UniProtKB/TrEMBL annotation, chain A:
UniProt entry tagged with the keyword Amino-acid biosynthesis: yes
Record lineage: Bacteria, Pseudomonadati, Pseudomonadota, Alphaproteobacteria, Sphingomonadales
Organism: Qipengyuania polymorpha
Any one GO MF annotation of this record: tryptophan synthase activity
Protein name from the UniProt record: Tryptophan synthase alpha chain
Function: The alpha subunit is responsible for the aldol cleavage of indoleglycerol phosphate to indole and glyceraldehyde 3-phosphate.
Catalytic activity as recorded in UniProt: (1S,2R)-1-C-(indol-3-yl)glycerol 3-phosphate + L-serine = D-glyceraldehyde 3-phosphate + L-tryptophan + H2O
From TrEMBL, chain B:
EC number: 4.2.1.20
Keyword Lyase recorded: yes
HAMAP family according to UniProt: Trp_synth_beta
The protein, known as: Tryptophan synthase beta chain
Cofactor: pyridoxal 5'-phosphate
Gene this chain is encoded by: trpB
Species per Swiss-Prot/TrEMBL record: Qipengyuania polymorpha
Pathway in which the depicted protein is active: Amino-acid biosynthesis; L-tryptophan biosynthesis; L-tryptophan from chorismate: step 5/5
Amino acid sequence: MTRLSNAFSKPHPALVCFITAGDGDTAANLDALVEGGADVIELGMPFTDPMADGPAIQNANLRSLGAGTTTADVLRIARKFRERHPNVPLVLMGYANPMIRHGPEWFASAAKEAGVDGVICVDIPPEEDDALGPDLRAAGIAPIRLATPTTDAKRLPQVLEGSDGFLYYVSVAGITGKQQAAQTSIEDAVAKLKAATDLPIAVGFGVRTPEQAGAIAKVADGVVVGSALVELVGEHGSDAPEKLRKLTASLAKAVHSAAKGPRKEDMA
Amino acid sequence: MASNPNTYKNQPDERGHFGDYGGRYVAETLMPLVLDLEREYRAAQADPAFHAEFDDLLEHYVGRPSPLYFAERLTEALGGAQVWFKRDELNHTGAHKINNCIGQILLAMRMGKTRIIAETGAGQHGVATATVCARFGLPCVIYMGAEDVRRQSPNVFRMKLLGAEVVPVTSGRGTLKDAMNEGLRDWVANVHDTFYIIGTAAGPHPYPELVRDFQSVIGKEARAQMQDRIGRLPDLLVAAIGGGSNALGLFHPFLDDPDVKMLGVEAAGHGLDGDEHAASLLGGFPGVLHGNKTYLLQDEDGQITEGHSISAGLDYPGIGPEHAWLKDTGRVEYTAITDEEALEAFQLLCRTEGIIPALEPSHAIAAVAKRAKEMPKDSVILANLCGRGDKDIFTVAERLGVEM
């Protein structure tokens, strides 16, 4: 069992929480997410050109880079987190260029050494897997892929091939933190994904409130919340940990109390 | 062609790679669209009706073929090789950009798309896109860095006259690359009805290939015109490079002519020794941005840095991936010209030939001036005059200390 598979084997759905590394006191903010009940941490690697992100995460990237955050800082934040929280899975999320700047093998081994469990690279689709995927797998890090409303049935097997950890379902065709998808469309999409894979399905993009998170948790294995948390970091500075702990706790309560959705093997 | 291992014209491969460069580095949401576009482009390539409509619009709407012109007084002034210009600044809208926009809007309509978006820096591609959208009655949204909106107000007004909505981009640093980010964000949120007309030979496959193909009309015409006028091919081709579409358009039809040398000219801004330049090939490193792998201006951590050039059209931190490949193979030589050198060349062409060039080709002209002097008088240089300078007279006046 890996830390990621453990998190998705709990008796309840998993809450996945995202914040951007180097934006505010990241160590304190990460601790607050864990204390609030986050099951998986997604740590954003800041990038100058976050093409898939809406204003909230764009601004977090700019704040982080403005504060001088480097890739070494991101890895240091991850390593310290791993020391404090040996059992909480940690996933790095970001864009290709900072990850491959010194070669994919360098990044994969540095991430492994920092205790990272998975990597989500927004702009490396299956077609360009060679750019990073083989080195992540060799290092024992899960390459976590994204499926979207535009990923049709013909394409899905290609997305699943070589995916590991969990499958991140992007519930809206759009950027982070904007509109939320209709619950029925999420339910349909998750059912189709579950029919095609044993990987846990986590649903994100546009999820902001405990009500939304709880509804999604009824059908999915995990719920990802990012922009709403990142906004708290931007607004509250050194008071952010307390605000993050409160929001995370209410999200966790909603997600954890939802009945766990059926897995493929249960439906067979 | 496939059996010729020595050709430079067989790129990209079926995955859209030019050697190590190019590819399709986009978010999953866009991936199916990019694949659709490739399918539709292959169908269009095989469809004589598509080519006929493209050719007809280029002839009767854009005004092609553009003339091939012997610059007699400039040649005399330089005292070396004969200098010839491909006059793409005489196109409708005043630059080469329109060639590509015609091709892409025909593709958009084949695909049943009903809304067009584009990014623009100086505004030339925005104007060309707004023009074809007006011509075909499609709504058009142009993303433009807020700083560029301020500096290029005549082009903003042109776009609005043509019916486009111009959206000033304040995210990031409000420059061309941020405008492109915003274009990609719009596209990802409006995948069902929207076509993104990318302005240069960059972005995810198949954009670099199809933009090159649409711009190759420049080199195809020039090749035939040269044979017709002097009975041989030129010794050296010269073109300015921002993203690199006008250069590829000129170079590509000549790539397998071993006696034709080629020189791509990047913007050295205040000089390559500092950070104030836009020379991705000469001063950057390979990386991934805006859907493709190519040379980028970036720091040690892979963060993208801002380019600088007096020419807003060259002021982009990346370059088309085919240029990255042509550099590594050595088929094309690349050099860089500073703001000062480009300004001098701008004035030189005004006075010797009665042509006011855009600041982009002024970089090419400066490189031509250096090379012509070193070449014998019976040799021939062909440079692409890819845009006219009306849009730049305010910038030039400011640099020359003239109040307007």
